[in-house]
Amino acid sequence: MLPVSRRLFMSGTIATLAAAGIGSRSFAQGGPALVLGTKLELNTLDPHFFNGFPQGSSHSLIFDALLALDSELRLVPGLATAYRNIDPVTWEFDLRQNVKFHDGSDFTADDVIATLERVPKVPNSPNPFTQFTRSIQSTEKLGDHKIRFKTATPTPTLASDLARVFIISKKYVTGSTADFNNGAAGAAIGTGPYKVTDWVNGQQLVLARNDAYWGEKQPWAKVTEKVIKGDAGRIAALLSGDVDAIDEVPTIDIPRIKQDKRFNVVSGASATVQYIAMDAVRDVSPFISAKDGQPALLGNPLKDRRVRKALSLAINRQLIVDRILDGSATPASQFLPSRFDGTSTKLKVDPYDVEKAKGLLKEAGYPNGFKITLHATGDRYPKDKDIAQAVGQFWSRIGLQVAVEALPGTVFFTQATKQEYSVFMAQYGTEEASIGPRALVHTPGGVYGTANRTKFSHTDIDAAIEKAQAEMDPVKRKPLVQAAIEISMNEQAIIPVFHPNAEMASKAAIAITPRPERRFNALMMKPKA
Asked: How far apart are CA 152 and CA 66, in angstroms?
């Protein structure tokens, strides 16, 4: 059974806010307004188009899922008040009663059924939500507020999977992404604590408090999320008072902000990994070739585990953390930081070892290295372009001829999904230890490999993941998950580089509660008492 209640922030007094300099912004609806400056570029209001960080952050204000996660990644009630596992393939959920959508219509089991019907039909998704729903074989309505799911196979992660899927109104089951993107006049009508009043793609999202919300009343009558891509621009907006809080605070600016009593700086560890994915399947990879002036390569070097391991050993993770990220990260050995339950206790961060990396390349038949292009985003994550350049320099030290191409995130993810790269760097976040292996390194197909953009495939890894996914007993399942993680890393299915911290700053009157997911939104913020 679930914990008793979902924790939502209670409202503080307007007088307190005014005294702290926030109450100068007010909203006709009554109460203070909150303005955020964010690097997270929201490019859709369709809650089922792209399973990405900006979408998950903003959409959680508009929509609810059946279950939610607290700041410790524990499941808590959402639109479901309780759930039970009847047998390994049967789940029942009790749905919350007296819940209204923003348009005043009632929430019922029909809306859950409509949502699950729509998810697999959303076209051109760069990272589809089907990874969370494919295991469901059938859905049965047991009443307006009770529903039963049958899964094709035992699925111990179903509850946490459904916490990632936002529920829409049955009215919009056939709605296109364009329909949802039509701002306040569109289909982005949820049951969440805020309603859409305005949205300009890549610029800003404006929300009004939903006073008919089923949960605790939110303190902010109006929330504006302004996209400010440049680090200097976000800092300037905070210091000038144009915004109340910002994310992705450059580490170089943290000391001076901390010294200013007008502001708070908050740092939180994230359940996210910055990783490198490699095209280890195709015989010919588009951005790998012989170095200039050398004979043509025989095959794709990345198909050899020794080459993949050499690339990992050639990266000085600690130097990236210390010099580029100013300590705002932790070197990574696996999908999630080892403090999270279910992660491997055996895996260690690969040491920086140039000579061993060179030896592995020679052993694999590439003593002179090869030519390769590393693709990355240039506007998505903190210092993403700088980190990619550093990795390229590290690889050049073991004899590779490396080019680095940093692209806008909107271009990068589309091309990566089409398998247009040989090697790329991105981030992946999850709330449960088994989901990373399942999504990133299992052979694509069915319920697995939904975020595996390189189509990596290894039969032993697949078998280990599937064995863990089939075990419903959490005590028995834990070592199976750990084994799946360990074989994935031993085969170097991906190269984990580091786990980033989230650095945020706000006016002194605002308290921010960091979340392990990459989130930056009004639900994390409340007025200080």
From this structure: 20
